[in-house]
Design a protein that fits this description.
Pfam families: Fer4_11. This protein has 1019 residues and is α/β, with parallel strands linked by helices. The protein is built from 34 helices and 41 strands.
């Protein structure tokens, strides 16, 4: 029965003579709404007999109704599909298999698209995948939406059409062909069989043409060595999962060494199983990702590394090549003996930029008969020839190059001899630069040809022998671009479209798989077991290497940072803000130097009042070339007598102002060799760093990073190496996990999500950090805000150094404090523990919201903006949060981020959220937060709910191990595992019962749903 009660909306309604009441009674809105703009002709609409219900039905889009009743804010027009594509269902993601091959990074990946927009990179998880996504590959989706991209062809810096470009290039090629003048195709390593075939056809049509391959970061010496040993220009492959003893001499194989991607195999051997765990010994100058993860790290200069390699060669092969004494020789010889004892289960790798050093690697692994050493499946992802590039520059300066066509290279920025190249470019009659941007080379070329992003392109890639991967477009080209291959076809008078050319070339070279299946899977593999042999003289290589001598004050090691790589994506704010895993510095490159050398030169790092980190400046001189005012980071573990500088910074052309940071270290990259002799001098002034972690050591806090040795782990009970924290109950010590301040709920019904993090297999690579950015619309705040400790990363990877030689000795020192004052008292002792060792052990620990079942943030929120969900996730109602920050103050893990500013559509933050193109990368499943609210990890609740709804729609239970978060899906080492502990078949349920499991700060009693596994070292 209906009610006739009358409700009053306000006291004003009781006044019958009120004009306001009368106005609102006849019109809900006090001011007219501009519906004409949206609906068209007002008169024809009023004359229509169409009802409101029919009108909304015909419009068929919910925002039409929203725009009619909105009384605040602008009207935003939403346009529905006229003809909806069959493959697109609004609100449902589509995934496409593709391959990135930008000359530096190669990986088999999946691209997540929403309504036709690529928004995220995922790993291709099919068996046979060669390389997975690193942090740069995850960030590459944002580079697609770079508003500084070259949008149309330019001739002499003026906008032109492709027909104009074709006419000029064809005329130039005809002129060169008639005169017999030199035509050069200068490209990066594309590793594309179809492109190689196409280039061969182009050269056949233009007999005076040649192809030169140039990689900004060269592996030329390693390629030369492999060619000597195996008769082919390629790089040896390695499977570290098959090695029990790994010795690396200057090879950061967990970083970018020889293309990277070795972390997955490496991690498999790093988790102790049945008493077996690989041992990793790292000999290096810079503190690298590999050195940070090693069981034993031996810091040596480049010269000493060369002699150490010869000593290892002597031990393994029985040779007796004379070498000089090296620092820490006893440790080097012990490593050599351990490698020899491992036999076929041992492997040696080297990153020394010396052909003789690389030859000794092959000799040692062949004598060991190393199972991890795999030359038959050689990598084809680095093919640059430094000698050929040097010859090209000489030819250009001599005026003997008529036409130069470049693709995927930027030598004016990346060549040490860039001035010579730029000078030679002026003497080339026609130069064409295919580039994503009008970069340093394109701006000096006759023609700047806009190239499509790899997500807009077709292609094939041979990552290694026996592999063929496919690149397919996931969006139509955003601008007037053309692929390099398409242009070659046109300029060869071949009217075939590159897609058809590619399809014909690929289908003729593979068997047992259809084109559609190949495109669907993204790759195809065939086993390769044989390898050719060459005629390398290993004994001569050892003798030559043994003659190495230090030539100057310092030995410079040029390297690539995990976030920036070779600098192709320097305009990508995700990567600029990505904290370096070792130094924790973002928005900069710098020179790393040892504490001892810094003291001699009066160089320092210090913190200022706002908590920011400052450092001194130096000038580096290599062979008469100076790199001025380079900021200094005093790096624990840096070998005395060495310095390190990262490549990829210091770019200016086609870069947003905020991204023009750092110095261009390529100017020191003489002869494309990463090892140089340098002089350094101190400069005046202090540099302001953006560093997200100022505490450097654990200071003996063994409840944060729990670790033990393999020997103790195997022989002792878990209570010895993973003790339960004790608290006082009624003045008696009891285990912390047995005491509660809250009443616990029954969480055995439904789903209960937890995340496991294994500290043994986490390499600190940071792929999870960028994946979290992409999935959850995490804003970029810029260097100034990072410096104020206002970073917005939902996930951070803490890096800790030991103060003594090991973390165990840190704990021992802390436990033996005697009294309060003095060196052995707690005050003086903790002061000493703040400083890292000269050669510290390193530990990485990913930390995000721990999703505590007894969360202290929830009890202090005055507006109940944060609360606990039935499925174990700590929720945030952003529109309820008023930014009191009580929760951040109460969080023992410090994982909540306060939105100090509106980072979207704010001219102060000119990043991806502040231009229309950049916003295309935003995930529509996650709200973009406004100013003044707390942000934090949501455990990717949108992803968990999507899995549940999919199972519900299909009418079945959720599959085992179906749940993932952005970080767990991005983790190639398998360190992060997410799942439902109530499903006992899920891997997470087994990991929770593992004796290595512990909770971060368990004595606090927060009952987190994130747990860690004790780190075990094979000492």
């Amino acid at each position: 029965m209906s009610s006739n009660k009358k409700y009053w909306k306000s006291v004003e309604e009781l006044n019958d003579n009120s004009s306001i009441v009368e106005t609102l009674r006849n019109n809900e809105f006090a001011e007219p709404i501009p519906v004409e703009e949206f609906l068209g002709d007002k008169e024809s609409l009023s004359a229509s007999s169409t009802s409101r219900r029919d009108f909304l039905k015909y419009v068929g889009f919910s925002t039409a109704a929203a725009s009619l009743v909105a009384c605040e804010g602008p009207v935003i027009k939403s346009i529905p599909y006229v003809v909806q594509p069959e493959e697109i269902i609004p609100g449902v993601a589509d995934y496409y298999a593709t391959t990135i091959a930008d000359g530096f990074d190669f990986a088999n990946i999946l691209i997540k698209t929403r309504e036709g927009r690529p928004i995220k990179v995922e790993n291709n998880t099919l068996d046979g995948v060669k390389l997975s996504a690193n942090a740069r590959v995850h960030a590459s989706v944002l580079s697609l939406y770079d508003s500084t991209r070259l949008k149309q062809p330019k001739i002499a810096k003026k906008s032109a059409s492709w027909s104009d470009v074709d006419a000029k290039v064809k005329a130039s090629l005809n002129e060169a062909r008639t005169a017999g003048s030199q035509v050069v195709l200068l490209t990066n390593t594309m590793a594309s069989p179809s492109t190689d075939k196409l280039i061969a056809e182009f050269i056949a049509k233009n007999p005076s043409a040649k192809h030169v391959v140039y990689d900004a970061v060269s592996e030329s010496n390693a390629l030369d060595a492999f060619q000597m040993a195996y008769g082919e220009r390629a790089l040896a492959n390695y499977d570290f999962a098959k090695a029990n003893t790994i010795v690396s001499v200057g090879a950061d194989f967990l970083g970018d060494w020889q293309g990277g991607g070795f972390d997955s195999g490496y991690a498999k051997g790093r988790v102790p199983r049945n008493g077996v765990m690989s041992k990793h010994i790292q000999i290096e100058a810079n503190m690298s990702m590999s050195g940070a993860n090693a069981d034993k790290r031996i810091p040596l200069t480049i010269t000493d590394q060369k002699h150490a390699l010869v000593k290892i060669y002597n031990v393994i092969t029985g040779a007796s090549v004379g070498t000089q004494k090296v620092a820490r020789e006893e440790e080097v010889m012990k490593a050599a003996q351990q490698l020899k004892a491992a036999g076929s289960k041992g492997v040696l790798v080297s990153g020394l930029d010396d052909v003789n050093a690389q030859l000794l690697v092959f000799a040692i692994n062949n004598v060991l008969q190393s199972q991890a050493f795999n030359p038959s499946e050689a990598r084809l992802t680095r093919k640059g020839d430094a000698k050929a590039v040097a010859k090209l520059v000489a030819d250009m300066k001599a005026g003997s190059v008529h036409t130069l066509i470049m693709s995927g290279v930027n030598p004016v920025y990346t060549l040490a001899a860039s001035k010579d190249f730029a000078e030679g470019l002026k003497k080339v009659k026609l130069s064409v630069a295919f580039s994503l941007k009008e970069d340093e080379t394109a701006v000096l070329s006759s023609i700047a040809a806009p190239a499509p992003h790899y997500l807009e392109s077709w292609g094939d890639v041979a990552i290694s022998k026996g592999n063929l991967s496919i690149t397919q477009p996931t969006i139509r080209p955003l601008f007037d671009t053309r692929q390099f291959q398409e242009a070659l076809l046109l300029w060869s008078d071949n009217s075939t479209a590159y897609y058809d050319y590619l399809k014909a070339a690929v289908t003729s070279s593979v068997s047992g798989i259809t084109w559609n299946k190949l495109v669907h899977d993204g790759f195809y593999t065939t086993p390769v077991t044989s390898v050719a042999s060459g005629s390398a003289d290993y004994a001569a290589a050892a003798s030559t290497l043994a003659q190495a001598k230090k030539a100057g004050d310092f030995e410079l090691v040029l390297y690539t940072k995990t976030g920036m790589g070779d600098g192709q994506q320097a305009n990508n704010p995700w990567l600029q803000e990505f904290p370096d895993p070792i130094t924790r510095v973002s928005w900069d490159n710098y020179v790393t130097i040892s504490k001892a050398d810094a003291a001699k030169l009066d160089l320092e790092n210090f913190n200022v009042a706002n908590g920011g980190l400052n450092g001194s400046y130096i000038t580096i001189e290599v062979g008469g070339v100076k790199l001025e005012k380079v900021p200094v980071i005093i790096q624990p573990g840096q070998a005395v007598g060495t310095i390190g500088v990262a490549l990829g910074y210091g770019r200016k052309e086609s870069m947003k102002q905020e991204m023009q940071v750092g110095v261009n270290a390529y100017t020191l990259y003489a002869n494309s060799n990463a090892n140089q002799t340098a002089k350094i001098t101190k400069e005046s002034g202090d540099h302001e760093f953006a560093c997200v972690q100022l505490q450097r050591t654990l200071m003996g806090r063994g409840d944060i990073i729990k670790e033990t040795t393999l020997d103790v782990f195997e022989k002792e009970d878990a209570e010895v190496w993973n003790p339960s924290p004790m608290v006082s109950l009624d003045h008696n010590p009891v285990k912390a996990n047995t005491v509660d301040l809250w009443t616990s709920f029954d969480r055995s019904v439904g789903h209960h999500f937890k995340l496991s993090i294994d500290l043994n297999s986490c390499t600190g690579c940071g792929a999870c950090v960028i994946a979290c950015h992409a999935e959850n619309n995490v804003p970029v705040v810029g260097k100034s805000e990072i410096r104020r400790s206002r970073d917005m990363h939902w996930l951070r990877i803490d890096r800790y150094y030991s103060s003594e030689e090991t973390f165990a000795k840190d704990d021992e020192k802390k436990e033996n404090f005697d009294g309060l004052f003095g060196d052995k008292g707690s005050l003086g002792g903790f002061g000493q523990l703040e400083h890292p060792s000269d050669n510290p052990q390193v530990a990485f620990q990913p930390v995000m919201c721990q999703h505590c079942n007894h969360a202290p943030c929830e009890t202090v929120c005055p507006v109940a903006a944060t609360s606990h969900g039935r499925q174990g996730q700590n929720h945030m109602a952003y529109n309820r949060c008023v930014g009191t920050r009580y929760c951040a103050n109460n969080c023992p893990y410090k994982v909540r981020r306060f939105n100090w500013f509106l980072y979207s559509k704010n001219s102060e933050f000119d990043y991806h959220m502040n231009d229309d193109l950049g916003r295309m990368v935003l995930n529509p499943d996650v709200v973009v937060r406004s100013r003044g609210v707390m942000e934090k990890c949501s455990m990717c609740i949108q992803m968990t709910q999507a899995v549940i709804l999919k199972a519900k729609r299909e009418g079945k239970a959720v599959d085992t191990n179906a749940f993932e978060t952005a970080c767990s899906a991005a983790c190639t080492s398998g360190s992060m595992v997410f799942g439902d502990v109530n499903n006992k078949a899920d891997e997470i349920a087994k990991l929770e019962e593992d004796p290595r499991m512990y909770h971060l700060l368990e004595h606090v009693g927060t009952k987190p749903n994130v747990f860690y596994h004790v780190k075990v070292r094979n000492t």
